[in-house]
Amino acid sequence: MSSVSNENIVKGRLPELTDPNHTYVFRSGEHGIYDYWYMDHAGNYWKYSNAPEGHKEYDPLSGIPLLVEEQPTPSKSPGFFTPEGKKRHTSVPEGTDTIRNENYNPVDPENLWYEYYVREEGVRYVYLDADVRENLDLWVQYQVRVADVAVSRLRRFASDAFQSEHMRDRVIGAILMLVDQGLFTPEELVNATVRDLSFVDRTVRLLGRKFICDDNLFDFITSLLAQEDPDAPLFSLETYHGKSPVRLRHLYAIFRYLRVFPSFLRAWNASHKFSQIVNRLSVYSVPPDLVEDKAVGELRRIFASKDDPYHLVDASTRRVLLDNYKLVVKSLSNTKEDSDYFATLIVDSSLTKKTTDEMEYSSWLHSTPMHYPVGELPAPPKEKTDV
Amino acid sequence: MFDDLVRVFDSWFYGEDLSKAGPKGLSKWNKYTDVAERLNGKSKKDITFTCCHPDHPGEKHVLGSVQGNLHFLLGYCNPRFYLADYHWLVIDPSLGEEEAVNLFQERGHPARPEAWASTMTNDPGNEGDIEAGSPHPSSVPELEIENVKRLSSKGAREVRSGAHTYLALPAEGVLYCKETMVYYPWALVKDSFLSAANPEIAQKMEEAFKERSENVEETVHKSSEPEFLRALAVPGSFHMDVYPLIKSHFPTPGSVFCVEDKSGQDLYGVVSPSSITFYDRSASLVPLELYGRRYESLSLLKGGDVNPSILYSLAVSMFGVDHSVISNLAKASEAGHGLPQVVGAETQGFDFIDDSGPTSLERKVVRDGDTFRVVLGSSDV
After folding, report:
1. In this structure, what DSSP letter does residue B156 have?
2. Residue B85 above 90 pLDDT?
3. Between chains, do B188 and A267 touch, taking CB under 8 Å as contact?
4. CA separation for the pair A91, A94 (Å, rounded)
5. Residue B229 reports pLDDT greater than 50
6. CA-to-CA distance for A296 and A292, rounded, in angstroms?
7. What distance in Å separates the CA atoms of residue A90 and residue A67, rounded to the nearest whole number?
8. Rounded to whole angstroms, how far apart are CA atoms B181 and B5?
9. 3-class SS at A213?
10. B260: nearest CB among A200, A290, A303
11. With CB atoms 3.0 to 4.6 Å apart as the test, which of A232, A311, B243, B368 could cross-link to B183 if both were Cys?
12. What distance in Å separates the CA atoms of residue B217 and residue A177, rounded to the nearest whole number?
């Protein structure tokens, strides 16, 4: 809590209420965990704890709408705001000069970006937070990058939870690892039964997907088979009322705490795997005409799901890899896997950060603009010089 | 059909005496049986393309003809000609199945889009084998535009968000961006501003999403078997000396089944008339080690180098064969149906033979009804 909030509580004052200048726009979230978005006069979005009273989306159990503390404000995070008061999608380092896009137009694909600044690694485009929320392409691109940032945090949390002495924590840790490294969805794991689990020597087969894991996780998963009823939920928690299956809302609350959507985590994994596959195909000198089909086929084998995983691959990743097949691929996921085989995943319970090739991919992802014009990407505008 | 079709294949029969085909027809001619089989069910339309050679713009040529082959291989063909691997066999039937597949994979589509664009003004559309083939990659954007038109005609709802327009496709569970030609799964979109701003579309997408997730019979996306297996899996029938259990319960020759090794990697077993051979995804032969012995392939023949218990174990683990099958087979034999069996009855009348063994290796076959015994003993027996 900030010192301001502590002071308010000590002196008996209430925290900030709804700003009368903020207008309610929409609600996001699911499984009962929602964010309520209001807009100010400048077109900036602000997160609240509830819809206005009387609105159909008002939740009587959530109390009066309050401004959520964990979000950038001009006083706490000035880098998130332009001098005119518009909220940026990311913070600009203090003391950095930004160059405005004079042709900025939120409905022009080529000029969606608001400003840019130059760093050692290259040009960084800055978008308005409102555009990122309202423009679907920017939204998806942004959330993939958010997932990329959250991966290390999630892995540390999952590894710590799995090493806990409490079975409850171990179950949650195992589920998080399987969502992250095993490419399962929370829904699949929550609905999995003992019957869905089998083994081929040291390979675990769960819901049609195969993975190899370290000894600790393998022992844990084999212990799940001790349940006698094959139709019993695979993952369950001991509660005061007895054994209870893990609930989706419980998992989504944890993902919310970790600030990542599981669907975008899956999209991030799909994008990274796709770049690995295309890199491997380039090693095998597969003709460019056949690369996309082969890569898509291999990706589908990895995910083995009803939904086509190719749609999860980040559009800019796919575009760069396929358009520059033999030239650019070395800049993405350069490290070769030990195994040539992608369809058997590796789940490591001690993994707490990104692997080397994931970090390479991450570095590329954050250096790539989020907007996609029809045609080639525009060159950064020339720097203005003071006359 | 083949005999009618083959009359345009003047490149095949250049200098050839067609009377060699005999009364059975060209399709039974040994050198053309493979390609005849691949062309089974195909029509002339599947092998016809529009030429864009400056001297023959817009003319229809057929693969297998001298002119058709020449213009096709030089790239003067429609980029939207859907090329399949068997087209290479039609161009040159002496290639063989495996070589045709390799050419298809390595050579790619021979079309030159720049030549097409410079010569052709009218677009003939898709040609070739649309079901089994694929067009030149350069024609994909045009196909996407047609795809959008097709999707729009199916009643997909259009919605605008930001700079782009999207088609909501509830049945497929995706949103399609018309400008960037990118598909967005509903799982990524449902928490977005677009979803909140279009509640009707969101509701339809969510209902379809739930319906699809509850449909357990919906196909799971998986890639097909490696293409090299197609050349190896030759249809046929089992050798007469193959074990009866295998003949009745194993996949037929020409079949491919998938097994896993200890590390979970997929291996592919190719069934031939007398053996099963295993390959990995890189087309490398995978030897097996069973009970300390190495096998390059598993022989299915009676008296082969594979112990029948190994084959039985394979049948049990892979193809759902259990003990009841064996006992049923035995019962069928006892009733005089099914397969004959040798019933091991206790041998009588050899008490006089001492432990040193028989004095003679003479064998006599003694029959008793449907059973017979091989008696090894002295010449007095």
Report:
1. P
2. no
3. yes
4. 9
5. yes
6. 6
7. 20
8. 40
9. strand
10. A200
11. A311
12. 28
- Give me the DSSP letters along B215-267: -TTSPPP-----THHHHH-------TTB-HHHHHHSPPTT-EEEEE-TT--EE
Evaluate whether A217 touches A156 at the Cβ level (below 8 Å).
no
Q: Cα–Cα distance between B95 and B76 in angstroms, integer?
A: 22
Q: For B22-66, write each residue's pLDDT tens digit.
A: 555 665 666 677 777 777 777 788 888 999 888 888 888 888 888
pLDDT tens across A312-360, in order? 998 888 888 887 776 444 445 544 444 445 667 889 999 999 999 899 8
Is the CB of residue A114 less than 8 Å from the CB of residue A131?
A: yes
Instruction: Provide the 3-class DSSP secondary structure of residue A374.
Output: coil
Residues B377 and B153: their CA atoms lie apart, in Å, by: 88
Residue B29 pairs in a beta bridge with none
Residue closest to A158 by CA, chosen among A31, A258, A272: A258
Torsion sign over Cα B226, B227, B228, B233: positive
Angle at B167 between CA B163 and CA B172, to 5 degrees: 140
Contacts of B139 in chain A (CB under 8 A): none
* For chain A, percent of residues with pLDDT exceeding 90: 36
Measure Cα distances from B299 to B242, B311, B334 in Å. 9, 9, 28
Residue A350: which of A171, A159, A197 has the closest Cα? Answer: A159
Max mean pLDDT range (B189-198, B286-295, B312-321): B189-198
Return the beta strands (E) in A152-308 as ranges. Answer: 197-200, 203-206, 209-213, 236-239, 242-245
Between CA A186 and CA B364 the distance in angstroms is 73
Helix (H, G, I), strand (E, B) or coil at A25: strand
Written as one letter, the residue type at A37 is W
CA distance A233 to A190: 7
d(CA B222, CA A304): 5
Contact check, Cβ <8 Å, A287/B105: yes
Question: CB of A305 within 8 A of CB of B221?
Answer: yes
Tell me the residues of chain A between 86 and 115 that have a Cβ less than 8 Å away from chain B.
106-109, 112
User: CB under 8 Å to A210, separation ≥6 — which residues?
Assistant: A200, A203, A204, A343, A344, A345, B260, B264
CB burial string A68-89: b at 16+ within 10 A, e below: eeebbeeeeeeebbbeeebbbb
Which chain A positions have a beta carbon within 8 Å of B192's beta carbon? 28, 133, 136, 139-140
Tokens of A310: 């190719």
- Find tokens 């159909």 and name the residue: A56
Phi, psi of B144, rounded to the nearest 5 degrees: -65, -40
Q: How far is it, in rounded angstroms, from Cα B222 to Cα B174?
A: 19
Task: For residue A372, list chain B residues with Cβ-Cβ distance below 8 A.
Answer: 180
Give me the pLDDT at residue A336, please.
43
| Phi-psi domain of B217 (left: phi exceeds 0; alpha: psi -120 through 50; beta: other) | alpha
Token readout for B246 is 């295998």
Task: Kindly determine whether residue A27 and residue B196, on different chains, have CB atoms separated by under 8 Å.
Answer: yes
CA dist list (Å): A152 to A35, A185, A265: 24, 18, 12
User: For position B118, what pLDDT does the model report?
Assistant: 80
Q: Nearest CA to CA, how far is A315 from chain B (Å)?
A: 7
Looking at this predicted complex, what is its ipTM? 0.82
Which stretches does DSSP call E strand in chain A? Answer: 23-30, 33-39, 45-48, 99-100, 115-119, 122-126, 197-200, 203-206, 209-213, 236-239, 242-245, 344-347
Strand partners of residue A312: none
Which helix or strand (DSSP H or E) is residue B313 part of? Answer: helix B308-319
